[in-house]
Amino acid sequence: MNKIPIACADFTFPLLGHDQVLDLIAMLDCQGVDIGLFNGRSHLRPDTEFKNIRGNAQRLREKLEERNLLASDVYLQLDTNLAAKAINHPDRSVRQYAREAFLKLIEYASALGADHITTVPGMFFPEQDNRQSLDMIRSELSWRLEQVKDTPLVFAVEAHVGSPFIDPAAAEDLVNTVPGLTLTLDYTHFIKEGYSEAEADRLLPFASHFHARGAKPGRLQTSMSSNTINYPAIIRQLIDRQYKGWIGLEYIWIEWEQCNDVDNISESIRLRDMITKAFRL
Fold first, then answer.
1. Residue 2: its pLDDT value, please?
2. Phi/psi at 220 (5° precision)
3. CA geometry: angle at 188 spanning 41 and 234, to 5°?
4. 21-42, pLDDT tens digit by residue?
């Protein structure tokens, strides 16, 4: 049976230095690292990494190679307040800033040797009609797809809590109306909001990257003991669909959504073992 490669997010362990994080991910027997470029909360941040794109990306690439790791994804977030630098922000200058950052993301990920990049999809704004916001989101995502079409990169967005696409049907409509768009699919956002696993299953055909952690209705992140997501069943569906991407272990440790209540090392190991066992079922 096919075995989908497993990655771990470098932002899972914020209390360690970044070199120690990479050491730990290698010790967890993961093959890849999901790199977070999050202004305000990750080890590596676009405001600093993009000052010397090729130099910083090359240094990181060398660190990964020393540990026999690959860059499985580079995830760009421009502000901890996701609306502040949203791709569809009503302020044209903010939209231009986000575009310029995306071009830098392409250059950075390419120099790093990654083949997948992720961003957040955009937000609703009270001063705009929702349809206007959605039209702008589709326009900006189409522009981004145009920028990556001649590169080896696959571009995806993550439908997340607080976004206009937290309903699986809305996320499906987005990818159907933006040709070429894919998803970094994370069931936990939908499960937290009360949607069923079956409702999220409709998004599997659009997944180019996959995030996994424990979750349950009302909680974005839980221990594996409290988790209600049937990851073995999802793994079987991914294999049946000949999924070509990675599975990224994505426990996080921040106060937001009480995501600092979990032992990330232990739960990442338990989740890894569950996923690994699913390949043998």
1. 64
2. -70, -30
3. 130
4. 999 999 999 999 999 999 999 9
Return the closest-CA partner of residue 43 out of 81, 2, 9, 66: 9
pLDDT score recorded for residue 281 = 67
Q: Which residues pair with 8 in a beta bridge?
A: 33, 249
Total number of residues shown for the chain: 281
Instruction: State the pLDDT at residue 1.
Output: 44
Exposed (0-12), middle (13-18) or buried (19+): which is 65, by Cβ within 10 Å? exposed
219 within 8 A of 276, measured Cβ to Cβ:
no
CB 36 within 8 A of CB 25: no
Bridge partners, residue 210, by sequence: 185, 247
- Judged by DSSP in three states, 157 sits in strand
- Cα dihedral: 159, 164, 167, 169 (round 10): -90
- Confidence at residue 184, expressed as pLDDT on a 0 to 100 scale: 98
> What's the rounded Cα separation, in Å, for the pair 44 and 227?
29
> Nearest-CA neighbor of 182 among 89, 103, 246?
246
DSSP-derived 3-state class of residue 26:
helix
**Residue type, position 178, single letter:** V
Residue 216 CA to its chain's centroid (Å): 19
Domains of the chain, earliest start first: 6-278 (3.20.20.150)
Amino acid 256: pLDDT:
75
Terminal CA-CA length for the chain: 9
Task: List, in sequence order, every beta strand (DSSP E) within the chain.
Answer: 6-9, 32-38, 70-77, 116-119, 154-157, 182-186, 207-212, 214-216, 219-222, 247-249
Q: Distance (Å, rounded) from C-alpha 50 to C-alpha 52?
A: 5
Backbone angles phi, psi at 38, to 5 degrees: -120, 110
Which two three-digit tokens encode residue 148? 């990556």
Q: For the chain, which ranges sit under pLDDT 70? A: 1-2, 281
